[in-house]
């Protein structure tokens, strides 16, 4: 299993501009129950630093760019999200961090479920311990 999974996103458009659609259970591998986005992130301030027990997400920079750092407890990988047609899946039990946000970055996230604080793992050592027993 690859740590970085890109979605196959089609860009439609012509001389007027582009349209990119993300749809439930089509391009997005789950039913979307929550949509949120990060914007105006201050220079040098990373975000994330958690994993989810069950939640699956898709992340895409609709504007600007940021560096995604992903970790499954055994392997780490980094990928720049730097185009509106470049989206990645953040599976459950993947520690993820977002770094080096550009000033114009808008990071859109689609989630498989509603917000639930109980689903978060916010301590990296606890995350590593859970991955050992998975």
TrEMBL record:
<feature type="domain" description="Sugar 3,4-ketoisomerase QdtA cupin">
    <location>
        <begin position="5"/>
        <end position="131"/>
    </location>
</feature>
<dbReference type="InterPro" id="IPR008894">
    <property type="entry name" value="QdtA_cupin_dom"/>
</dbReference>
<protein>
    <submittedName>
        <fullName>dTDP-6-deoxy-3,4-keto-hexulose isomerase</fullName>
    </submittedName>
</protein>
<dbReference type="Pfam" id="PF05523">
    <property type="entry name" value="FdtA"/>
</dbReference>
<dbReference type="InterPro" id="IPR011051">
    <property type="entry name" value="RmlC_Cupin_sf"/>
</dbReference>
<keyword id="KW-0413">Isomerase</keyword>
<dbReference type="InterPro" id="IPR014710">
    <property type="entry name" value="RmlC-like_jellyroll"/>
</dbReference>
<dbReference type="GO" id="GO:0016853">
    <property type="term" value="F:isomerase activity"/>
</dbReference>
């Amino acid at each position: 299993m690859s740590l970085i999974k890109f979605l196959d996103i089609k860009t439609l458009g012509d001389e007027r501009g582009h349209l990119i659609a993300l749809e439930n259970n089509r391009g997005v591998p789950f039913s979307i129950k929550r949509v949120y986005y990060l914007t105006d992130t201050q220079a040098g301030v990373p975000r994330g630093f958690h994993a989810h027990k069950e939640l699956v997400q898709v992340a895409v920079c609709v504007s600007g760019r940021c560096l995604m750092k992903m970790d499954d407890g055994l392997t780490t990988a980094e990928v720049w999200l730097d185009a509106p047609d470049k989206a990645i899946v953040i599976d459950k039990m993947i520690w993820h961090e977002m770094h080096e946000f550009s000033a114009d970055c808008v990071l859109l996230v689609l989630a498989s479920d509603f917000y639930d604080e109980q689903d978060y793992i916010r301590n990296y050592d606890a995350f590593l311990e859970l991955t050992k027993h998975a």
